[in-house]
Amino acid sequence: MKIHISLSAIARKYEERCTFVVANAILEHFGLPELTLEECPTDGLALVQTLRQKGLNYSPIKEPGQDWPMQPRTLRWCLSNLDRTKVYYLFVVGHAMALIKGQLIDTSERPGQRKVMGFEIYRQREVQ
User: Fold this and answer.
1) Composition of the chain by helix, strand, coil, percent to 5
2) Which H/E stretch holds residue 68?
3) Does 12 have pLDDT greater than 80?
4) Which one of 2, 6, 65, 91 is at 20 to 30 Å from 16 when CA atoms are compared?
5) Which of 4-8, 56-60, 91-95, 122-126 has the highest mean pLDDT?
6) Closest to 35 in 3D by CA, of 20, 47, 13
7) Can you tell me the distance from the alpha carbon of 33 to that of 61, in angstroms, rounded to the nearest whole number?
8) Of residues 7 and 35, more confidently modeled
9) Where on the phi/psi map is residue 96: left (φ > 0), alpha (ψ -120 to 50), or beta?
10) pLDDT class for 1, splitting at 50, 70, 90?
11) What angle is formed at CA 99 by the lines to CA 96 and CA 104, rounded to 5 degrees?
């Protein structure tokens, strides 16, 4: 199976750092106000805390069909196996991405073979 990855419209719109593009893509998906460049953290953990302050919540991605957190996986595996109806914040050291209902938001055209980790993102009132 060939997976084509291209820059999303939001990534082209901002042409900024990955955390900024990812945060605003997620906020836009949930109909929440976007962050300014100054408001957006550059650190991944601070990013999920900022999303939480905006009314979203997060939990570790679980292995499909299991109750335990996902082991580090390739991006290709994530694109093929994660639930295409959900929103995910994915990261590798030094780079952030989002998978929003099956659409990859990535400012890098070459994700490489590094293993990614991540969080499922959802509204705070939703029970996961």
Assistant:
1) 25, 25, 45
2) none
3) no
4) 2
5) 56-60
6) 20
7) 25
8) 35
9) beta
10) very low
11) 85
Cα separation, 71 vs 120, in Å, equals 14
Which residues does 2 contact at the CB level (< 8 Å), separation at least 6?
none
Q: What is the pLDDT of residue 125?
A: 72
The yes or no reply on domain 9-123 and CATH 3.90.70 is yes
Residues 117 and 84: their CA atoms lie apart, in Å, by: 17
Task: State residue 5's pLDDT score.
Answer: 45
Q: 101 and 85 in contact (C-beta within 8 Å)?
A: yes
Does the pTM exceed 0.70?
A: yes
CA dihedral 128, 28, 2, 114 (to 10 degrees): -70
